[in-house]
Design goal:
The protein is of the alpha/beta class and 355 residues long. 51% of the residues lie in helices and 15% in strands. The relative contact order is 0.08.
């Protein structure tokens, strides 16, 4: 009998706890595997029937996805942040594997997208560039914090310049503080060449993708932002609508409401003045949100159709912060349409929508 089996795996660096359940939810077997390709494949090939497998997104998720995808009928890399709300009681590796198998059997897992290999190189280069940029920014902030902690004004970028470095270090009278600042400057000097090299490699790889060239037509979307967009999103077809892209980018509006009804003379009535808390979704891709926010701010500062779109919103009485959010959402929608349909940027259509 070809019965479907549901496999849950709790993955760690050294071992994997696996649990197998049938369609009725009965635990068929559980075991602990060594985190090696041969051992995992031997376990999977020893199971009969139609296999559905799930494990949580993590450091080994991409490797494990590529390893097991050809050997099971359904593979779901699930979001651990949403699985945490469904767990109860004591937790350990064995219990987690059982719970994952049960969540898969009852179709309660939320999948994390794992794309094709076509953009794998661009994705890794994008991660490298973003990480190095964040590290560089962190060191720059620490340098300024040293001066600010001693009431030394350090606005602007001259504090990072090698030409003015001796002048800035002379302002630090305390020897220990000066040495600390010198170490931070050394760290900054070592990071910047690596970041520039990562930038060149990202641009070189981005030229090989048609989507990168297409998205560069949008104002304020240059070669770096277009390459990062393709690296982060990988494909537009993972988003059915623009609202799904907004949610992934942190621009989806969520409402929180409580006490919608009251009892008046024994009858249930809805409150006329409803207290609703609105805000943007917190569970999102932070790199994508920072990229779109930066693109929207750049578009506002450059003359063109996007700046006109923003100005029209402000003239209608919209707050500048909400107008920037609306512009970022509009740019995300334009990116999705252009990428899906392969069409060029049309400023006239944007002007008609703004009107």
């Amino acid at each position: 009998m070809n019965q479907e089996k549901y496999i849950g795996m709790d993955v760690h660096a050294a071992t994997i706890s696996a649990a197998v359940k049938n369609a009725e939810g009965k635990l068929l077997m559980e075991c602990v595997l060594e985190t090696k390709a041969a051992t995992i494949l031997e376990f999977i090939q020893g199971l009969r029937g139609t296999l559905a497998l799930t494990f949580e997104e993590g450091t080994l998720a991409a490797w494990l996805h590529d390893l097991l995808k050809p050997h099971v009928s359904r593979l779901v890399v699930c979001d651990p942040r949403k699985n945490a709300l469904l767990r109860d009681g004591n937790q350990n590796d064995r219990v987690d594997a059982r719970n994952l198998a049960e969540l898969l059997r009852t179709n309660q897992v939320h999948a994390v997208y794992h794309g094709k290999h076509g953009t794998r190189a661009l994705k890794e280069l994008g991660r490298s560039y973003l990480t190095l940029t964040q590290d560089t920014t962190r060191v720059m902030n620490r340098i300024k914090s040293v001066y600010r902690s001693w009431a030394i004004a350090c606005a602007g970028t001259s504090v990072y310049s090698r030409r003015h470095r001796a002048e800035w270090l002379a302002k630090l009278v305390e020897p220990g503080v000066r040495i600390r600042a010198e170490h931070l400057y050394q760290q900054l000097d070592s990071l910047e060449p690596v970041r520039q090299a990562a930038r060149r490699e990202l641009l070189r790889e981005g030229r090989q993708h048609a989507a990168v060239k297409l998205l560069r037509q949008i104002p304020a979307i240059g070669p770096i932002r277009s390459a990062l967009l393709v690296a982060i999103l990988q494909t537009p077809h993972r988003f059915r609508t623009k609202r799904q892209l907004w949610a992934y980018g942190g621009f989806a509006v969520q409402t929180y409401d409580s006490g919608e009804y009251r009892v008046v003379r024994g009858k249930l009535q809805r409150n006329r003045e409803r207290i609703t808390v609105r805000g943007l979704n917190r569970n999102h891709n932070h790199d994508l949100k920072n990229l779109l926010k930066g693109a929207a701010i750049s578009a506002i500062e450059r003359p063109g159709p996007l700046q006109d779109f923003y100005a029209a919103l402000v003239e209608k009485g919209m707050r500048p912060s909400m107008a920037r959010l609306t512009l970022a959402r509009k740019m995300a929608a334009i990116i999705l349409i252009m990428w899906k349909k392969g069409v060029s940027f049309d400023p006239k259509q944007l002007q008609r929508q703004a009107a």
